[in-house]
Amino acid sequence: MKKGLKREVITTSDGSTTIHFPELNEHYHSKHGAINEAKHVFIKNGFEYILTSKKLDELKILEIGFGTGLNAFITFLEGIRADQKIKYVGVEAYPVLANEIKLLNYVKELEATDHQTIFEDLHQKPWENLHAISDTFLLLKREQLFEDIEDENSYDLIYFDAFGARVQPSLWEVSIFKKMYNALLPNGILVTYAAKGSVRRAMQEVGFMVERLPGPPGKREMLRASKIL
């Protein structure tokens, strides 16, 4: 993503906000509903799915595109409901600006005002260090290009929430999905809002078993990829 592009906070169809790049016609989250997309793609078909298939003392999650912190915050809330310990690693090449974070309305829209300080901590805690956000939620934020990820056998679940292939095609190629495959533990999964045939084929080329699933509002399909070993 090029620096210097105009950015604006807009309201999506479900009332939640996101950041929009007018020159690219690209958003951090779906304009059809930022919270609805996050809950459908990453929680329902990722977080909840993996917890129905295995009992984990600690669920290890890698997010590709930490962005606004929405996926991390919803995962924190769902972890409380599921009584699940979580280690969350968020990778972001271009962190969101402090003045933009103040305009995001996720705490209000998720009716989570009791956890306002948690949302603030997700953004204010220093990068590159592991932090105990709560007794059950560990957070490590890494300011890093996705191309430089070298993790191996480290995660149960990957939230792949990079900017779309239309504007950043290099993030959806075989080389990136090979890194994702290597980063997952055996039988780990990756979920993404994307559904393009080229993305699915790139995943399959590196060894993933890929499922097409019904997409969130505004999208017909999404993908879930499994590292079956």
Structure in words:
By secondary structure, the chain is of the alpha/beta class. The chain has a single domain (34-226), classed as 3-Layer(aba) Sandwich (Rossmann fold), CATH 3.40.50.150. 30% of the residues lie in helices and 27% in strands. The strands form two sheets. The chain has an eight-stranded mixed sheet with strand order 6-7-5-4-8-9-11-10, with helices on both faces. α1 (34-53) crosses α2 (70-82) and α6 crosses α7 (197-205). It is globular. The protein starts with 7 loop residues before the first strand and ends with a strand. 38% of the residues are buried. The mean pLDDT is 94.
The helix/strand class is alpha/beta
Mean of residue pLDDT values: 94
Q: Could you state the order of secondary-structure elements as H and E?
A: EEEHEHEHHHEEEHEHEE
Which parts are unreliable, with pLDDT below 50 for 5 consecutive residues or more? Answer: none
Number of domains: 1
Radius of gyration: 16 Å
Overall 3D form: globular
Number of helices: 7
Q: Output the CATH class name.
A: Alpha Beta
CATH fold naming: Rossmann fold
Please report the distance between the alpha carbons of the first and last residues: 34 Å
